[in-house]
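Sample entry (114 residues):
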Amino acid sequence: MSAVSEFNDYRAKMNERILNADNKVIKRIYNLDTNAFAEGALDVKTKELLGLSCSMVLRCDDCVRYHLGKCHELGLSEKEVFEAFAIANLIGGTIVIPHLRRATEYWDSLNEAK
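Predicted structure, serialized as tokens:
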């Protein structure tokens, strides 16, 4: 199983489990997240790049993978993604480099799965 399908399958399975618990606060948080990344004053591609950069600075590999998947679905180029990586490393410092490595590996997996 590829890293991409493994991540997506696990995410879908656990999101279903969590949402089936029927907790109003958790459902509202998920809804807020969905609405925050919808088209608005900023286009969806820009919002995904922001999400990617912020996730790298916060060092959340699951979030990085999620936003990379969305960037890939939206057709962002490698140059666009690497500019977001550069901003994240500038803001986050060298501690972000291990996440940059894993993000690059996952981006390559997305391209291989294509």
